[in-house]
Model the fold of this input.
Amino acid sequence: MATITSLVDTTTTTNQGKPGDTVQINGTALSTTTRVNFGSAAVTPASVSGTQVTFVVPSSAPCSGQVSVSVTSSAGATSNALPFFVLATPTTTGLSVTCVPAATGGAVTLFGTNFLSGTQVGVGSVGNVAVAPTQPSQVTFTAPANPGQVATVSTQPVTMTTAGGTSASGTTLIDYYLAPAITSLVPATGTAGEQITINGTGFVSVDTVTFTDSLAATATAVFTPVSATQLVATVPAGLATGVGSIRVHTCGGNSNAQTFTIT
Done:
């Protein structure tokens, strides 16, 4: 009678794997095998020899958990059974941040399920990051920079790949932002309470407009977005007169410091 000594998934090199993986059954007296018993499923072997049988984990395998594997010979005799563990496909549910600068990327924590056998996080067309999760529901990684980005905002899907497969793409997204740039101020001088039109690029989801005075003191201004290329800011009170500057900040980082004179 056939005897099974080990099960080896050729993808994971363990007795764990997912539907579609090829598994080697090692043992003795296997040459007359006609059927692999994968739990309650009958699977036709892909190859048979005296010491090895290979088969593909069927799509009917459970989502996760232990399955007994044995073989049956042409004479109807069934071998001993060994356990095989079906690994669950990971899922992603969210991120610790929703955006990062395109120029630098940044630290991100990905949340989800079934992460423990994770090998990499995929960030859309930007690239993959090797990971080794220590928790089943989250992993922290550094999102890579996106130096070739042209659009002000580039939305990328974030996925997790484990021995159980790759999570669905599009369920978890991260935005890459180019840094804003100021091209002109109208007028380029002003006093507290006056409104200044700031022209430039990348004014998407602006979070702060900062005035710096001639003594290097700073103040955050009240502002009104107009478009991706223009906003209106009110010169804050309490700043010293003289030549200073204005910066605009988004998730992409700080803009250039545009010269502004407080009168």
Q: What stands out?
A: The two ends are 97 Å apart (CA to CA). DSSP finds no helices and 28 strands in the chain.
